[in-house]
Amino acid sequence: MGTTTPPRTLAEALRARGDESLAGLLRARPDLLNPVPNDITQLATRAGTRASVVRALEHLDRFALQTAEALAVAPDPAPYGTLLSLLTGDGLDDGEQRDDAGAAVTAALPGALTTLREQALVWGEDDRLRLVRTARELLAPSPQHPSPTGLGPTVAEATAGMSPGRLQEILAATGLPATHDPVSAVAALSSLFTDRTRMAELLDTAPVEALSVLDRLVWGPPYGEVTPNPTPPVKWLRDRGLLLPVSTRTVVLPREAALHLRAGRAHRVPEPVPPAVAAAAERDPQAVDRAAAGQAFTALSTVEELLKLWNGGGPAILRAGGLSVRELKRAANALDVTEPIAAFWIELAYGAGLLAPDGETDERYAPTPASDEWLDLPAEDRWTHLATAWLAATRTPGLVGGQDAKGRALSTLGPELDRSAAPDVRRRVLALFAELPPGTAPDAETLLRRLRWERPLRGGPAASATGQGPAPTEGTDLRSRLALWTLNEAELLGITGRGALSAQARALLAEGEKAAAARLAPLLPEPLDHVLLQADLTAVAPGPLERPLADTLSVLADVESKGGATVYRFTPGSVRRALDAGQAASDLHAFLAAHSRTPVPQPLSYLIDDVARRHGHLRIGAASAYVRCDDEAVLNEILADRRSTGLRLRRLAPTVLAAQSDPGSLLEALRDMGYAPAAESADGDVLITRAGARRTPPRTPPVPVPEGPPVPDDTLLGAAVRAIRAGDTAATAVRKEPADAPSSNAPSGSLPRTTPAETLATVQAAAMTGSTVWIGYVNADGAASQRVIAPVRVEGGFVTAYDHTADEVRTYPLHRITGVAELAEDGKG
User: Which of 175, 394, 584, 597 has the maximal Cβ count within 10 Å?
Assistant: First the structure.
């Protein structure tokens, strides 16, 4: 195709592009690569399918979409000037008032057209712009699918099928000369509606009420219902063709008349410039960083507390998957947060690979082995791990408590919480934060307005109709909801502080995890190696504690309150828990003396000695269960206690009692009665119960659900473009016809057919002369393709050749070649 010849089809327009331009198309629309098209024609066909066009339209910003909508109602093809006029108007309605808006549209239109051309939604030169037919069908007006522009069908479309007599009546009412040719009549009426002078004269004669009817229809929807006996204003409009019948009860304002009333504009308000994100508050950047770091530390503490809560085995998994409402409430109470926030922390830990199902028969959630590795990391690295997992996760905890498309409740960790748009929305929201000066908190409403401008169709009805995007019940609001959830979750996680993006988050987005950790580390409090013991059996940790100290203290005491300082309370139960974990009374005394900045209070020492003196005095093992004690009086006391009746105890020996319950139940029952028994093994040794021994098998974090095909890398794009070019060469190469070819030509693009002897002779001759031939080939899976090859060697039933399609040397079995044809002289090379 010559450089001066305008393309006649989308395939020809794509064929004229350079390799970089084709790679840009495949990068913007990766669905076109699955699988790699055989040639340019197949690429163009796939680019025009409904599902692919819908996905492409969803990725347009508002002005690019408005440009496509204007082309959908413009003549096909449309000159650049016509398109510009549809977006700016003819300037005859309000003089100089729209000059600024028109200048903005004029400046932005070339960029919007470039975007549409790059995505193969528009093709052709500026004097013959064409919108892809599928996009025109999606955006063009119809009674079932009104145009986004609010325009109705043209006069020609609305009068199709109208009787010639009715057309003559309309011409007579408007003062146009009569004609018996329906085509001429429609042309005359269209010419009247597009002539501003004559149209203004016609409307000057209209009743005021008729003009009010037009005002209600002019910006859409353009359809209205009429009664069998319409009012005089409606009858006046209908008689003059300003309202044309669609059915017996429906009329429509034709497009040409609406454009006159709109002063030529397809949209009421073109939006060529993205709305700016306004600042809600200006804060000290250092204060923002400190606040975000404080919240980051709280996030780490909360996740650690959650892991500790489920350390010995977490809640059971529902049959349908996920966490029950009761277990979510229990976790929220333990973490001292609301249920939605508890759902966020649970989902975050799950998405980061720190929690997972244990895979047992009675399946439960439990920490993974990766959680132990995470806990050993420095605090700043633990935070970057959580933040990175949050950015990439498609799990959406904000949906918890809602319902799916079938009316079923959505539960925490349930299977229906993935929303593929979530990562893109999170990153875009934070990118808009990053565009503001440090310390600036954006206004949420202007932020949402900007997001709606950037992706006006994302998640809308069109996407739902094709199976893309969220469920129809979520509608176009999902992206806004994801943005609002992002604002809240970013504050909880310490990405933002006091509503503004922190420096560590900016580093995470721009430079990666190492840079973010380096920024965060100086802002986090240093772990302490001491506590303050008090006489009321409490210990105060004035800051975060070192990991070994915190772990031991959490076993020895119960957390009573959190905040800037954590208060631990020592109780008989907590001390017994430490003794059950294998600690001796002397170990506990030494531990407290080593880590307390205050003297160990006497009441605490007495508590430890008293519990230790009674701990293990009773021994419990499996009989079903038994109790043994060297002190017969203690066993007599247990037998005499009415509370032991349910245990069905009986004496086997002076120092041994047998029970019908299992050892665990017996152990808990005696502790509830005020004793301090210890479990023992079959060898008579005391069993040590260590906290947090339950772990899942190694688990990988949940894989985010991708939003459509992944964007290919440059290597894959380059290979795909070469394959498409080579396939196109094979498809469009000029072949020599065999001398005995039948008179009827084979269908264009069909595979060549030759006998095995002819195939062998042709490829042998090509190998000897070094010429290029065209072959049809069927692979082992039965997929047929056509290729241009330069045979090098033919032997043993195989032909080795340079394959222009794959841009490499390949070997083909001769029996899989359906036929071969020589290329014409002008088709070589």
Answer: 394
